Amino acid sequence: MYQVNLNLIRQTRKSKGYSMQYMAKCLEISGKSNYFQREKGTVPFKATELQQVADILGLNYKKILVKTFRKSNIKRPEEVS
User: Fold this and answer.
1) In the chain, what are the domain boundaries?
2) What are phi and psi of 54, to 5 degrees?
3) What SS3 state is found at 2?
4) What is the pLDDT of residues 30-57, one digit of tens each?
5) How far, in Å, CA of 45 to CA of 37, rounded?
6) DSSP per residue over 13-69, as a string?
7) Residue 71's pLDDT band (boundaries 50, 70, 90)?
8) CB 1 within 8 A of CB 46
9) This protein's superkingdom (predicted)?
């Protein structure tokens, strides 16, 4: 499973001096509050938006996605009583 590296997006945007309003305009999102919700993780970025974000920020698309490991609910034989 992959998760969007929102910290990388936020840090890179800030380091380049790009405002949320600028990012919203580039992504054709109405208003900076709608962009903020994506950057915060409240609303997920669409796949097409992630590619645009990578291009705008000069990041490799693969760096934006981070592989995550979920803890399995499957019990090992020694854990079953």
Assistant:
1) 2-67
2) -60, -45
3) strand
4) 988 999 999 999 999 998 999 999 999 9
5) 9
6) HHHTT--HHHHHHHTT-SSHHHHHHHHHTSSPPPHHHHHHHHHHHT--HHHHEEE--
7) low
8) no
9) Bacteria
In the chain, the amino acid numbered 11 is: Q
Please, is 75 exposed, middle or buried when counting C-beta atoms within 10 Å of its C-beta (0-12, 13-18, 19+)?
exposed
Residue 78 in this model has a pLDDT that exceeds 70: no
**Residue type at position 49:** E
- For domain 2-67, which CATH number applies: 1.10.8.60, 1.10.260.40, 1.20.120.1200, 1.10.357.10? 1.10.260.40
- Residue with the two structure tokens 């920020």: 57
> What was the pLDDT predicted at 26?
96
Q: Report the C-alpha gap between 20 and 17 in whole angstroms.
A: 10
